[in-house]
Amino acid sequence: MPVNLGIVGATGLVGEEILTSLNMLDIEFSELRLYGSKESVGKTKIFRDKEYSILEFKFDELYTSNYWILAVDNPIAKTIIDYRNEHKIDCVIIDNSSEFRLSNDVPLVVPEINGNFLKTATHHVIANPNCTTTILVMLLHPLRSISKINEVTVSTYQAASGAGKKGLDELLQQVKDWTFGDSLTQDYWHKQYLFNVFSHNSKLNKEIGYNEEELKIVRETKKILERPDLVINPTCVRVPVLRSHCLSVAINFESNVTKEEIFEALLKFKGVMICDDPENNEFPEAIKSQKRSEIMVGRIRPKLNADETTNLKTWNFFISGDQLLKGAAYNSVQILSDLIELS
Ligand SMILES: NC(=O)c1ccc[n+]([C@@H]2O[C@H](COP(=O)([O-])OP(=O)(O)OC[C@H]3O[C@@H](n4cnc5c(N)ncnc54)[C@H](OP(=O)(O)O)[C@@H]3O)[C@@H](O)[C@H]2O)c1
C-alpha cells in the first residue's frame, strides 16, 4: 500500500522534528503534505532535496492521505479527529496533543513498551504520550522485569521548548533583553524565565494541589504500564534550558534489587542509554541528550537509611531525554514506522 503522509503543524517545534525523525528512521513514502496555520501558508520547506509548500488544512484534506501525524494544540486536533470519526475516513491519525490520550478506545503508545496495541488494525487514532511521561516510562518499563514497582517519586526539570515555539522564542528574547539591558519580554511566560526555576506553568487543580503536567504523568504512566494501582508522586518544574527534559526519579520496588540487575535490565532495553560514570562525575545532562532518540540514565544509587546503610528496595536515578524527539516526534514516527510494517 502506498504511504501518503500528512503532517499538520509541520512548521512547529514538534513538526520540524517529525521531518528529522522520518530521516532518522528512514521512512519511505509516496506523497508528503505539510500543513501549518494560515500565516504559514505559501511558505516552503525543503525535505530530502524537494521543496514543499505549506498548505492550509481543510477537513476534506483527510481524504488525501492514509497516514496523518498531528502536531497541533488540543482544540485543532479534536476537530480533525472528530471529523475523521464522524465521516469514518479510512486513515490513521497519530496525535501529539493530549486530547484523546486517556480515551478508552484510543491506545497511548510507546512502541518499545506497548507497541502490541498497533497490531489490532481497528484503531484509527493513536495517541502519543506526554513528553515527560514517555521519558519516565522508558526508565520504569525495563526495571519492572526485576521486581514489581510499588511507588515512583519524580521531580522534573523541563525545558522551555516543551511549551512550543512561543515559549522557546520568549526565553531567547529574554536573553537578548537581558544582554542589552532592556526590560524582559513577558508576553508568553508572564514572568522572568531567564535565570529562574519555577513550578510548571500548566493549570493547577486547586482541590488536590497538582498541576496538569503532573496529573498527565500520573494518569498516562498508569495507562501505558497498565498499572492503575501504581503510586506516582510528581513535581514538575520549568528550568531555563532550551531543549531536553531532565527527571530525578526514586523508584520503590517490592523486593530488594541490585545494581547489577538494574544495569542488566537497562542495557537490554533498546532506547535507553546508561550514562553513569562516577569516576569522572559524568551523568545525564539536558545538553547531552539533545537531538538524540535515546533516554539517558545515570546517578543510579540506592536510598540511604538514617544510618547511611543502603536500602535496596528504593533506587534513585537522574535521567534526561529530548522531549521533542522521544518525547514527541520520534515516538510518533516510530508508531508510523510500525504501522507501515504491519500494513
Ligand atoms: N513541544 C514539546 O516538547 C511537545 C512535546 C510533546 C507533545 N507536544 C504537543 O505537540 C503539539 C505541537 O506542539 P509544538 O511544541 O510543536 O507547538 P508549536 O511549536 O507552537 O507549533 C504549533 C504548530 O501548529 C500549527 N498550527 C496552528 N494553528 C493551526 C491551524 N489552524 N491549522 C494547521 N496548523 C496550525 C502551527 O503553525 P504555524 O507555524 O503556521 O503557526 C505550528 O506548526 C501540541 O499539542 C503539544 O502539546 C509538544
Amino- and carboxy-terminal Cα gap: 7 Å
SSE string: EHEEEEHEHEHEHEEEHEEEHEHEEH
How many strand segments? 17
**Oligomeric state of the chains?**
single chain
- The mean pLDDT is 97
Q: What fraction of the residues are assigned to beta strands by DSSP?
A: 25-35%
Structure description:
The protein has 343 residues and is of the alpha/beta class. The chain is 30% helix and 26% strand. It contains nine helices and 17 strands. It has helices spanning 13-24, 74-87, 111-114, 131-143, 165-179, 212-225, 259-268, 286-289, 325-342, and strands spanning 4-8, 31-36, 44-47, 50-56, 67-70, 92-95, 125-127, 149-157, 198-199, 204-205, 210-211, 231-235, 237-238, 245-253, 272-274, 295-304, 310-321. Strands 3-4-2-1-5-6-7 form a seven-stranded mixed β-sheet, covered by helices on one side. A six-stranded mixed β-sheet has the order 12-8-14-17-16-15. Strands 9-13 form a two-stranded antiparallel ribbon. Strand 10 (204-205) and strand 11 (210-211) form a beta hairpin. Helix 1 packs across helix 9 (325-342) and helix 4 (131-143) packs parallel to helix 6 (212-225). It is globular and about 65 Å long. The N and C termini lie close together (7 Å). The mean pLDDT is 97.
